[in-house]
Amino acid sequence: MRVAGACLAVTLLALGLAACVPVKEPSSPPIITATPALFPGFQTNVSDYVVRCDPNTPTDVQVDAPAGTTVSVNGSPAATGQFSVPVTQDVGQAFTIDVTDGGGTTTHHVRCLPTNFPNWAVEKNGPTQADFYATVLVQGFGTPAYSVVFDSNGVPVWWLPPHPTFLLQPFSNGNLAIMPLNGGMEEYSLDGTKVKSLNTVGGGADFHDVVLLPNGNYVMATVQPIPCVLTSWGLDPTPKSCLDHVFQELTPQGVPVWTWDTNAHIPVSETAPEWIVEQLNDVKNGVYDPWHYNAIEPTSDGYIFNFRHLDAAYRISTPTDLTGLSGPIQWKLGGTTRPESLTIQGDPDGGPSGQHDTRLLPDGTVTMFDNGTLGLGPSRQPRDVRYIIDTQAKTATLVGALTDPDVTSSGCCGSARLLPGGDIVTGWGSTPQISEHAPDLTRVFHIGGTFVYRATPILPGEFTAQQFRDGMDAQFAAGLSTQAAAAPANLNPALAATIASEQCCLKR
């Protein structure tokens, strides 16, 4: 793991110059290093660190504290000058470094990473508006992976033992959820306790998204095979097998409140032409994937559902029953034309392709991560996009787009979140990067390392660093820090087919 240059030091220097009113120069900060190395390098304005400790060999902390500054390591007597302190540390365990000078005392937390924690790289060029970033360090389709929360210095401050999941979803109740690829949702408290398991009814849950509603209910969708006729794709009328998605609001006990059946509202003829070609080329076990949902967004009167293979997002009214038939479509953004379609204006690319993570903002605009996949390709550069929706004129006008010169393609996955302060947090999907860009499109933060299904920003006030520390301390005390990874996903045919669709466009 590495951190770019002296970005944090530059920030510290800028803050120092801005506050340079006193005549007396501030004392030099202590120099603190460790073997194995601290990440990031020690600075008094950084609270959290990690180290790849060896439980059989103490972590050796070396200190050089100037006169007037004392340092205590892991509760050792505070001292000044040059000294070292060995700290016995196990995986998941943290110790503290307390630095005291004329300005008071700062406490710094150093936690040991698991030995198999993936490598990552961080670049920070300015202040961020997100406090944390929740993601999964995906290293294979179906392989157990770490669900991780990084802070704004790129430090992993919370994680779960590996599970075969792509999604880590923070909830407003203070928990986080994963969607195991085997199906269903698992909700965890910060101390690593699984507080709920929930699955959809009538078919296993698709792993792409889960929403916790203010009323305490959950919204998920199934992925289930149904008979289908694909003559609109140029195939013979013999019934085939297609993956359908039935969206459901579920009580905490798993009882459906309403259902919305994709097949009943969107015919297979709306599959985008380039995705028909992809599916005919990549069909898995004879199961076709005409819709391929990947995001659920609540609205004031219903939901927006996003479908990769339709190149479109659909806003629907809240369903009212369990038939799957209620919940009319209000509008469609992108893809083939139907009566509810919005006319896309001002978009040089003509609309999204293979998009993910469609979200509705308070001002009524819509954002999405446009992969630009174009089925089997050739693809175009991915981008974050924002559209103004005019339901009277039935138009969607592009008002903003963000690309990154380091990202030239993204075969699948990804996310785009516009923050209240104007920054944009992007998970670049199969290009293994997470970034935060300022309103002027300057990249202020970047994490690189592994495949990113989604990067969810956590804003100030939603979670705190101390909550994550307490949760990790509780995990360590319970023995979860050294818990073995969950078994790889054992996919049923439906999940195997939707995974195959995810993998399709990584081949080129």
What key phrases describe this protein's structure?
single chain, six-stranded mixed β-sheet, elongated, disordered N terminus, mainly beta, five-stranded mixed β-sheet, 508 residues
Question: What would you note in describing this structure?
Answer:
The protein is mainly β and 508 residues long. 10% of the residues lie in helices and 37% in strands. The chain contains 5 helices and 37 strands. The strands form 9 sheets. It has a 6-stranded mixed β-sheet with strand order 1-9-36-35-34-33, with no helix packed on it. Strands 28-32-31-30-29 form a 5-stranded mixed β-sheet, with no helix packed on it. It has a 4-stranded mixed β-sheet with strand order 3-8-7-5, with helices on one face. β29 and β30 form a beta hairpin. The longest helix has 13 residues. It is elongated and about 80 Å long.
Write the layout of secondary structure elements.
Blueprint: E1 2-3, H1 7-18, E2 31-35, E3 48-51, E4 59-65, E5 70-73, E6 81-87, E7 94-101, E8 104-112, E9 121-124, E10 132-137, E11 146-151, E12 156-159, E13 165-170, E14 176-180, E15 185-188, E16 194-198, E17 211-212, E18 218-221, E19 224-228, E20 240-244, E21 246-250, E22 256-261, H2 262-265, H3 273-282, E23 287-288, E24 293-298, E25 302-307, E26 312-317, E27 329-334, E28 343-345, E29 356-360, E30 366-370, E31 383-390, E32 395-402, E33 415-418, E34 424-427, E35 433-437, E36 443-448, E37 456-458, H4 465-477, H5 493-503
